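Objective 1.3, modelling of assemblies. Example input:
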Amino acid sequence: MNLHEYQGKEILSHFGVRIQRGIVAKSAQDAVTAAKQLHAETGTSWYVVKAQVHAGGRGKGGGVKLAKSLQEVETIAGQIIGMNLITPQTSAEGKKVHQVLIAEDVYYPGESETAEFYMSVLLNRARGRNMIMYSTEGGMDIEHVAETTPHLIFTEEVDPSVGLMPFQARRIAFNLGLSGNAFKEMTKFVTSLYKAYVKSDASLFEINPVLKTSDNKIMAVDAKVTIDDNAMFRHQDYVNLRDLREENPIEVEAGALGLNYVDLDGNVGCMVNGAGLAMATMDLIKQAGGEPANFLDVGGTADAARVEAAFKIILKDPNVKAILINIFGGIVRCDRVAQGVIDAYKNIGDIKVPIIVRLQGTNADVAKELLDNSGLAVLSATEFKEAADKVHSVLA
Amino acid sequence: MSVLVNKNSKIIVQGFTGSEGTFHAGQMIEYGTNVVGGVTPGKGGQMHLDKPVFNTVAEAVEKAGADTSIIFVPPAFAADAIMEAADAGIKVIITITEGIPVADMIKAFDYIKNRDCRLIGPNCPGVITPEEAKVGIMPGFVFKKGNVGIVSKSGTLTYEAADQVVKQGLGITTAIGIGGDPIIGTTTKEAVEMLINDPETEAVVMIGEIGGQLEADAANWYKQSGSKKPIIGFIAGETAPAGRTMGHAGAIVGGSDDTAQAKKKIMRECGIHVVDSPAEIGKKVAEVLS
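Predicted structure (tokens):
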């Protein structure tokens, strides 16, 4: 589950990580109230207005702006709220902004120069351990840093039996070139950050930038936080942090029905049991001259109700010109699936696109007979290749 | 010969009396697998599916001589079940459970590291040595005995591959479903290595998917090993968009080197017979072995 910046920062702050403070606002008027409150709490008189959407590169799309007065807060917040923010990470239409974070200005002048760093916490899959990845090159695209100056990216692996050790936090602070109070602040920052990562069951923390202020404080100015969906059962308090407006509505609906669905841009819908076979089926559609319209794993029990639900989800996409159903019946018998397809087809009534059904495994022959004798406009197949050829022919 | 499981394996089922455990243990017993009992804490002393139920894995090892375990325990308790099996001296721990939190798997992975056991999975279909032992949730009838080993991250795609191989008149030594999670006990390379070293296995089918480096690691190992045993490979997810999780928690393209295209390129460079179409796996195996 992805979180908004303001939600991620709340979690960080809860575990003692210093953050750039801010208050979320849903309208220009709210934004002014938020700014006044922030002024009272922090003394800031400049404010950063930040669009809250699930996408990086918000600044590039005009979703992050500095306001030097309450008047400017109102104007800028009014412009950003409701806009379709287009960033390098969104689709061409962009993402609608429903709320902004009014944040304190932390780049104030002082005894030393400010400095920006990059820091993330994530799983090193190959090692089966978490790691902290960090760089002196903060505030910019880390992929770009990795390509142009890979020697400026450091990693610190965490031994799960002992957790992040103080010497590791010190090494990070030294590698970032810090000394004095900023050094101490950074060790504290890293330690709290890792603790927050573990305690919140996160699967990604990306803090870019981590800022050293002119008075040598270390704080998170941005926060990209992803929580491990599999661990949500121990974080009931995070459940309401999910913002469904940020997700594809068809995917949300499919998820509620227990279907694993990913919306894609193509013209051939597919319904498959098993994630690997589903991906392979998408590849086959492409090789047959189509483009997959979706990924859809119906799971182990492909019964009539699930097949019908899956049909309805796929048919919501107007670009779908054909549907390929590919079920390998193991424990679930093919004739049951075939009956499910027939029942679902009849229940829905007017399916206007050709349907190719490939059933293989237990009772595949019986299933093919059922489909062939059903009187429905369904093309049946038993071999994978045969299914591909039929997709090719209906698209031609 | 075969790898990991055979007719002499003494298998227990953790999560034996739950609905998943009951159903699949029944299927395994029907297949002829040597299930010696199961574990459900608090139900020790009872009989289930005509087999003894134990309170702990240690008790199952002591009283029934168990050396292999299959885990159907729900996600919140599965990592604990893995560690209990390792602690009790189980040698092969096959974890079917899907949806274990990553943080739990980091702990379990670290815990078993220096213990004498091998973890398969989690989030996998299990392991089958045809006509000897089915320790998993796969449909047994698809897998006929023979000389082709299979390593795969996916369930139904494994059945698909096995079916294609069998329809070419060939058969399977052992099929290993290694699982689709970000952290798994046995890597593609380790599973491939076992099968390459198995004297009865004449060819290996290696099925991967987008995300991670496991297939590239296996390919590089194969090249360095100098083995003459052929590997036939397929990578699912050529059409998957970057940054989206495709069903399996680990199936996500993170960078340019974990796409299907990149993986297939490395595999080809390492001498693996890569097919682009998932419909051609069986045909390719027959062609390579002829």
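The longest strand of chain B covers residues 145-152.
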